[in-house]
Amino acid sequence: MPTLAAIFTPDHPPERLGAVTAAAEAAGLAQLWVWEDCFRESGIATATAVLATTRRVTVGIGLLPVPLRNVALTAMEIATMARLFPGRLTVGVGHGVLDWMGQVGARVESPMTLLREYTAALYALLHGQTVTTHGRYVHLDNVALDWPPAVVPPLLVGGIRPRTVSLAGELADGVIIPGGNSPQDVRAAVGHFRDGRAAQAGRPAGGRGDVVLFVSVSADSPATDIAAMVGEYAAAGATHIAVNAAEDDADLERFVAFLALEVAPLVS
User: Fold this and answer.
1) Can you name the CATH fold of 3-266?
2) How far apart are CA 129 and CA 142, in angstroms?
């Protein structure tokens, strides 16, 4: 059965997060996803706020843009969160919006090279390894976390294009597929992801990996319609389906409770 989650997008001001988080916790929602978009909200800060004010909800961050963040700093932040809230965190990284990266002077010539170097280094650091690497973009000299996470959170890579999804399968624990893709698109991406997992470069094999899909629906959609859509995407290979209310003025507290109490029981 796929995990049904909600999304708190950075289109909403941070001060709305507390009430939405409380509604998700009260309704028993399994998972809440937050995003990091340039000039809006920090994924690390919002995820920490959710974790600190709940006891059961698990939190996903999708995505942290790798050109914007030194990999050692990202590892430190994730490790701190994971030690404070073990077993309740999933983290996604990705290329970021290239125009935004250009605005802050962080755009690189080869985003795929950066993502490969960054994901490999971040995965190793979170697993307690001492890392020395001098790639095109990532440079670490005998770096190790003093406080690596006791429970290492799943590390996911976001994308839909074949090379990125294959990289996710090879170097990470899962993939995050953005919204706007059909079940056929998801099925094709899952195939590339599994091809990457079959070529796991020096990483212990384990399971089929997480396939997280972001989708957007009207807040007024019937529960049966959303459940049917979730079923289609689950059949295509998605293991986690995170749902966003399309309307900017949606009652998010009501929507997350609706997902937990009315849609989730219909998902099988």
Assistant:
1) TIM Barrel (3.20.20)
2) 10
